[in-house]
Amino acid sequence: MFYNWYNYLRLEIKQKKRVKMRIRFLFLFIFYALLGYSQENKPQVSGLFLYDSVKIGEPTPFILTCLHPPNDQLLFPDSTYIFGAFEYEKKIFFPSRWKGNYIFDSCIYYLSHFDIVAYQTLSIPVFEIINVDTLFYYSAKDSIFTAGLLKSLPQNPALKSTVFFNPLSLFFNYPYFFIGIVCFCILITFLWIMYGKKVIKFIKIYRLRKKYEIFSNALENKISTLRSNPTRSDVEDAYIVWKKYLQNLENIPYTILTTKEILKRYPSERLQISLQNIDRMVYGRLPNNEIYKSIEILEDITLEKYLQKIESIKNEK
To answer: Distance from the CA of 146 to the CA of which of 5, 28, 81, 114 falls in 20 to 30 A?
Structure first.
């Protein structure tokens, strides 16, 4: 009886061990199956230089490809990415296409470098966006040699003592020129709206002042001559100077108006006496040693009209 119980217990232990082994084997099978699945669905990134050597500063193409499942959200680096010792020049991106059950993306980067080292290596990543996290999948490193510009250095090189600058043709910047013209026109328009009327008044007053100064100097010279030697021709010249200035000031044809017509337009006892004295000497040929006083009266009357004209310009709206 003891022997039978011992055999039963031994068979029970062996059966439990077989179950545990099966469970362990099943667990390992599932683990490695999942591991293989994850490796199989991982994006496959490849990158290589199109040429084996490049000159300093010369752009060279670097091809980056990625084979990935269609549901993956992947991003290729742009111009803001730091490409190690290389400088970004441009890139050419190709449309995605199917390759079996996967998506194939590719891009060509044009990069340049300015280091004098013998060769450079580069590995570029592809970014996978998973919710709020980002995974990096780097391509295998590829190397490129730096091509020398001198095949061989001469033993006794000839050195130049002086190197002159080559003249460069000037390039006219038309965009900035037109922008400057537009800004200038806008500024002039703004200033004209704000200060246009004041500027016009200032110009009118300035011109009147200059013309009056010329008239006053010319009439003063005639008055000085008439004080020392009053002649009929000098009186007539002074009279014509006065008429021409008033004609220009008031836009009235004083040069063809008679004394009566002038007095109708500007009734004044002082003006009447002065014009009568001038008519007696010019047309009646009657001498008058104090005829210069009549010309001075004309000058005083002209000054009043000049000041009135200045005041009317200042009051314009």
So the answer is: 81
